[in-house]
Amino acid sequence: MNRSHPHPVVPARAISALLSAVALLVTIAPAAAAHGPDPTLNGVWFAQNQALRFDWRVGAVPPAVIRTAITSAAADATNSRSSQAATIAWAAGGPNPIGYGSGAPCGVNGLACFTRSAPTGFTMWFREQGHRFDWGTMQWCQAYSSPPNGCYDAETIALDEFGHVEGLDHHVNASGDGDYQDAVVQTFSRTKPQAGWNAHRFGVCDIAALQRAYDLQSTSQKVSSCLDLSTALAIEVSATVVGVGMNVDITATLAVVGVAADARLRGDRLSGRAITLQRRVTGTTAWTSIATMTAGALGTYTSSVKPASSSDYRAVFTTPATEGLVGSSSAPISVRVAKCAAAPCPQTVPIDVPEGRS
Amino acid sequence: MVGQTGIWRLLRGLVLVGAMTALGAMAVGVAGRGWHPVACAGGGEARVRVATTAGPYPVWFRLDPRIDASGTLVGQRLTTGIHGSTATRSLSLPPESFATGPFGGLVLTGADDGHVSRLSTIEVATGCISAVADGPDVIRRATVDRTGTTVYEVRVDRATRADLGVWRRPLDAHVPARRILAALRPDGRFGRTWSTTLAWSVDGDRLAIQTCGEIACRTRVFDPVSGHVELVDAPELGVLVGLTRDRIVTHAACRGLPCPLIATTTDATRTDAATRTVLAVDGGPAVLTRIGPDLRVVDTAWDGTDRRLRATSLDGLRRDDLGELASDDDLVTDAETSGIGDSAPNGSVLLAPVGRTEVPAAGPTRVHYLVVHPPATSDEGAAR
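^ Those are the sequences you sent over. The predicted structure of the assembly is below.
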């Protein structure tokens, strides 16, 4: 509000006003700092991998080029969601209508709009080619064999709308919009040839919000680099006391810790990552990397060692450059080597235990 | 919000039990009768007279885009009619055109041929047309005040599409318009201007001029008598639902629905942080209407199973369930959005398929009223 003469609020009204203001902040202020995952809309989510099928609204069927763009955008959404978000596709008789022309929900501004009634479905409308806005005449790039500058890419706009249907709100860009291309679900749509005008995959910050909301598709799926999830490594060994030359199997398990907003991801096992096994001689402080652990099932990683002397072991996950995980180390675990002359050695006599005490 | 007991009482009193009663219904001829309007007899005084009297029947209009086989907008079709009559008239307008009203028995139209913008009034009962003004600037929107004497226009520059502000002229005389409000300064928080719309307060004494970017909107509230203007320019706010004496009701800046509904005071004695009340976090299509002595925001809400109508007080403290909506019905909101120019009787809201009217090929349009009764003061009253 621009106020020429603001006055103090009457105290009796201030409380309710303050509550209202707080409620407003909760409900409409962006829920994420700049360059975080997209904020999310109010309401419930669709089920994981729920199949959302749409068909063209009777009497308001888009022209062929726009139908193609919307259908492609649905495939873009499904293929790039990198999560268990709902899948979207055209199907004859699909219960969710997509129309073209002057759709009631759209109001007077914007290129397209949607209604979302999760977990049941959605509707969507796209402006018609040539719609007049105050700034001029709206053009879909798809309407031209050589799209002119200033046109909007219908596939990108449809992907943005499908992002909203999934439950995403507009990305909060960093100052200067330098990270605009990290999200398709944007407040301001871009025209050709601005960077990001024809994005046909969800951006990393769209995916981040989808992963938070719908979870990863598998333990090996990459976590969006727009996230910053803390991790935990647990470690266990097949034996804590062995004879010289005997094998010890070491198993590490990597999982997401995250924060409250990552509730759906918390505890997720993470497979296929690079886990390093480190060793130090018991009683020393310097760690040495001795192996890259072999990836097993469900976020487990294994190595087999033959300790020559009592040693501590730990697993280390280094923060990766290409996904939104924070590195972690397991707690050290000790393996003591028993004193004997030749294998097989008795495993009950640690090498550093004084004789006569066992 | 009210408790369970309160809800039950209100359900009996506020809503028609069983929800909807069609007070009136209109069947709109799909194509309408072809129509080449003749000039109205009489001058500006006659226009004012028609603008301030609805005649024996209230009039309505609807505006539909005309889209060619390639999907391109080639014009708009204006259809007018009178309640109680099946006769309609249809008029082709160019792509850059609008219709607004009705104002009494008049519909105000603007049509731009690429060179000149023309404002005209159509007297629905007779089908005659009167030129109000023309000029080289693009007249994007216009409205008539409650006295039926003054036209307000929003213009943009033809070449640059720059906002040229708000202009005012008398309806009853061909005199040049005078600019009363300059263009808003560009503001990166809102982006370029997609629309500037005009809407009167529920009492008709103040004019909201809302300038929207792609999603967020700035609203100026103009007092035609004093010339005083209040600007609400919070980028969290979106499209206007309605204007009262001391507040505007808008959606938040959303691209779709549901979207929060927010009441923002325009009383300059209150500070910014204290001016907003969230009426609903999950607002649907909404209108501001009078229910008994009170103003309520009526909107459509999805409860996870059904779409329901509800009425919320402007302080957000009271909400009443108005019942379930038929599967394809939705609220008819402003004419810009719905394409329907009609006025629901006091205490009622308009409903239509998908909130707009069905598209022309789909058959006759159904529009009906939901009568919303004031809260009951007794069981006897609730039995209506």
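The longest helix of chain B spans residues 4-14. The helical segments of chain B are 4-14, 44-51, 335-338, 379-382.

Shout if you want it in another format.
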